[in-house]
Design goal:
Structural class: alpha/beta
Oligomer: single chain
Largest sheet: 5 strands, parallel
Number of strands: 7
Strand content: 5-15%
Number of helices: 14
Distance between the termini: 17 Å
Radius of gyration: 22 Å
Strand order of the largest sheet: 2-3-4-1-5
Amino acid sequence: MSTTFTEHGSNTLKTKAKMLTEKTFVCAKNKEELDQLLSEASNVIELNSGCCTLIVGDSGSGKTTLLKKFKTRFNEQYTNTASPKGSDQACYIRSPSNMSPLDLYRAILKGFDEPGIIEGTEVQLRIRIAKQMQTKRYRVLLFDEFQQVVEKVGIKSVRQIADYLKELVDEFNAYLVFAGTSKVQNLLSINEQFASRNSLTIQKSLLSVSTKNNYRTYVSYLLTLNENLKFTHIDFTDPQINLPLFATTNGDLRQLTQTLSKAILYAAKRQRDEMLLNDLIQTFSPKLIKGRTQVNPYSQKFLILKKELGVNYEM
């Protein structure tokens, strides 16, 4: 497949490495999932009736990227609207580890850009949250890494948090989105009334080469990345190139982005206008897998690599 390179001012390899996260979003199934989230949010705004959504998946499956893109798109769509009350806003909140109710309230206020050290009792913080939701019109709250609420605190605290979140949905007609591992779903089983407000669950998954269809999706993903950014003439349809790349990342979108970005920056530092296969080889970082240092997949025998990846179909 031929890729035409055209440089436009700042559109250098270094710039492309930084742009890769955005293009990672464009290429993934996230576009369909983004439309689902925007549709749910639109229903909440138009009907003035709150609900919640779960985004469930392993680390590196694209949950955080989806949340942040949704925040951007929602705020673009609803900022500076003609409403006399002002614009509706979405807010990204990273869930703290060992989350108690008080920790959650602090995290929400931090997401609201409240300055300084956030202090106060639970009651005081809840009053401040309510005031900011009213004055700044926060209608969408996006909670990332929310599995920590069910992993690391007691059932009593989890129920208390679920009750409070249900109040936000009902009192402010808010749209709450919770992203995390599969344990996030336990939140719904803890509070049936809260579960009844769940309108959508999005399942995220890592890239895979376990079947021919999965392999085609993975290759198409690499090709689309390059079509968008034009950072290499490497033939990503070649299994002897794409399978070693897969082996370095195991289908983890975050790791794939980091791997390609490192190789692109490596090429940029050598004053080249494209990434070469050797850049991927030179920037490979071995991991410790089951007590053994990973072999560089680019120098590994191809048949052995296929077997290790479970690829037993013709390519």
